[in-house]
Every structure is written in C-alpha cells, then in structure tokens.
Amino acid sequence: MYIYLILAVVILILYLAVSIKVGDQYNLVLETYKKQYPLMFMFPACFYIIDKFKIMQRFYEQIAKIQQKMISLYGNRTALQHTKLFLAQLMATVIIGLMGTFLFTAVAEGDTTILVVGLIFTFFTPFAMISKLSTQEKERKDMILLELPEVVNKMILLINAGETVQQALVKCVTTANNPNSPLMIELTETVNKMMSNEPFHQVLNDLSKKCGIREISIFTTTILLNYRKGGSDLLLALRELSHELWEKRKTISKTKGEEASSKLVFPLVLIFIAVMIIVGYPALTIM
C-alpha cells in the first residue's frame, strides 16, 4: 500500500522541482494560448522536459503526423507552437493519470484492480486525445467541403457579371452569411494577403497548403490555370468543378445522415431494455 503512495509523492515532488526550476521562462507562450488548452498550469514543467530531452527531435516521425494536423487546423505559422502545446497537454494528462492511479491504489490498500484500470486509462488517454484531434480535422474538412460549392457558384455568377477573379473572391468574403466558418476564415486571410499586394499565385498556393484538401487544391489550380485567360474558359472550368463539388457535398451529407442514424441506435436499445424491465418485472413478481 505504502509503495503506491510513495510513487505518487515522488512524481509530485519531481513535478514541483521542475516547475520551480523553470520559473517564468514560458509565461509569454502560456499567456498567448491560455484559453485554448486545459491543464495550462502544468505546461511550464512539461515544456522544460520536452526541450531538455529534445522529444520533438527524437520522435520527429511520430510528432510530424500531429504537426500536419495542426497545420490543417491552425496554419503554418503557429503549427509548431500548437504541436508543442499539444505534447505538453499529453504529458500533463499522463502525469495526472499516474499520480491519481497510485494515490487511489494506496487509498484502496493496494487493490490491483484499481491499479490496472488506472494504468490502462492513463495509457490509452493520449491515443484518445490524438483520435479527437483527427476527428476535429475531419469535421473541419467536411465543413469546408460543404461550403465550397456555394462559393464556387457565387464566383461563377460574379465573373459572369464582369468581375475579375480577385474582385469575386473579395465579394464572396464580404457577403458571406457565416464569416466564422472554416472556409470563410481561410478565404478572409487569403483576401487580406491579396490586399497586402502579395502575389496572387502565392496567396492561392498558401490557401491550398493550409487547407490540405484535394478539392481546395483543384479549386486553386483551376483558378491559377485560367484566371489570366478569363472569359468562357474560366467559367467552363469552374462549372465543371462546381458540379463535382455538389456531388461531393451530397455524399458528405448522406454520410453524416447515416452516422446520425447509427448514433440513435444505442439510446433506442437502452429505452427498449428499460421498457422491458418496467413491463416484465411486475409480471415476474406476480408469478
């Protein structure tokens, strides 16, 4: 029993020692992102461990997958910082999990069941967090794909009315119904770069890399190949793309509908079991 309590205390002392040594070294980073991540009070010690043991360099292949998701979610400029923050969050979760496991095991007088369950929970929690990150990335991509056909259709109408591609993009952003959607946020950044006189081809390439979606890459490539020609060639290419995007949107909507239906199955089963118990229990007591 006492060995588990000692282990919990040792982990706590090591964490406090590292926190004291770090001091205010990472305060600027924490202040910038304090509302985006839980367990921020533990991040300074975790940052120190990451830097001291060069974890991001030693496990580059594994961490690169996480960084790719961060690029998709937050862009190239802050992806590295978000990756480090996410690793600190993983580490903080594992530390709390180990401390809690050893502490509860000690309170339960060395119950091995609590120890095993706690260690399993601690081990699988980081994988669940990475899986949640993948889910967030997928949801963001689906939201972009659902909105992209409308943007392409609006651009076709504007270009057909005599607007240039750049002007059409600006009007798509300024007249957006939901300016806080993922696609509109990316297009707003793109328009801001255009207004800052950055090269148009570079701006669209940045948009393609940031989103990391095949359909966005096709959209930007179609514009870059045809916007200088203008006229019927550009409109024809955009109409073909619009048709493909609407079909993709139908597929995503159908998939989401099937997922929603499947999520209702479990509650319905629970309700059915509850009804069976309510109806069957009186009959069994009478018999």
Task: Explain what this protein looks like in three dimensions.
By secondary structure, the chain is mainly alpha-helical. The protein folds into two domains: 1-110, no CATH class; 143-254. The chain is 84% helix and 0% strand. It is built from twelve helices and no strands. It has helices at 2-22, 27-32, 43-52, 55-58, 60-74, 76-107, 112-160, 165-174, 182-195, 200-211, 214-226, 231-286. The longest helix is centred in the C-terminal third of the chain and has 56 residues, at 231-286. It is flat, with a radius of gyration of 26 Å. The two termini are 49 Å apart. The mean pLDDT is 85.
Shape field: flat
- SSE string: HHHHHHHHHHHH
Q: Kindly state the percentage of residues in helix.
A: over 70%
Total helices: the number is 12
Q: Output the radius of gyration.
A: 26 Å
Average pLDDT? 85
The count of domains is 2
Q: How many β-strand runs? A: 0
Q: Beta-strand level of the residues, as a percent range?
A: under 5%
Low-confidence stretches: none
Largest sheet: number of strands, sense, barrel closure:
none
| Main structural class | mainly alpha
Distance between the termini: 49 Å
Subcellular location: Cell membrane
Keywords: Cell membrane, Membrane, Transmembrane, Transmembrane helix
Domain Type II secretion system protein GspF: 153-282
Membrane topology: Multi-pass membrane protein
